[in-house]
Amino acid sequence: xxxxxxxxxxxxxxxRYALDREIVDVDDTDTWxxxxxxxxxxxxxxxxxxxxxxxxxxKSMWLDTTGPTLGIHLGMSGKMVxxxxxxxxxxxxxxxxxxxxxxxxxxxxxxxxxxDGTSLMLVDPRRLGRVRLDPPVEHLGPDxxxxxxxxxxAALSRGTAPVKARLLDQEALAGVGNLLADQILWLxxxxxxxxxxxxxxxxxxxxxxxxxxxxxxxxxxxGVHTLSVVPYRREGALCPRCHTEMxxxxxxxxxxxxxxxxxx
DNA sequence: TATAGTGTTATCGG
DNA sequence: ACCGATAACACTAT
Length: 264
Hints:
single chain; Helicase, Ruva Protein, domain 3; 5-stranded antiparallel sheet
């Protein structure tokens, strides 16, 4: 499911395939995913327009058009699929929804049809994704891929929240999800429950470097499921560095796996 | 059959 | 007002 790296691969697909084609039909009838606009309002705003650029900050995407901006968030189970002139489907190589067969429209929640017969759809079984016009993005923190050490220290300096909860706070820094957070904390050898107020300057700098490394690695390797500690997020697994049994906890409301020996 | 889940947001309580 | 925790959302996979 999508964190920053998966959203970036989706953005790349949109940029490569979906720009500069005239929109001749829009299916925005799923008013749970397409909101808060009235049914048909997104359709009316986009008919006859073209997508002109695909942008991303954290896990949020927005598409510039010759009309209003189209915001797309993949939620926990969404993926973008582009159907080309020969009905071949292109997605980000995302590892989830692997079981979906080409042409399966059961979970298509939003669709743009272009004049040349191609189309772009949001496929989202759980319907936790969102499509909206002119989405707000200013509230998001700096993108986790290019946040500077100084910005990172500022984002993690205030308050008493567990450091993992802060890493997941999209207004502090944008793009880190549950798996990336576990990887970052494991790489930096920081306990997920440690209050941000207890982090030292060296801790913060290690965390920032671990964030950059983890995001870059996941983008290069094809998603957060390729991160090195992810296979060890299970009962009975041993830390791949020190062979201590991994421990499970709930931090920031999310399932958390960490090495109790190294992450102190 | 029961439960957990890679995300976000409204609401509650301190 | 600020900060953090929790429940809810809808559906699939185990």
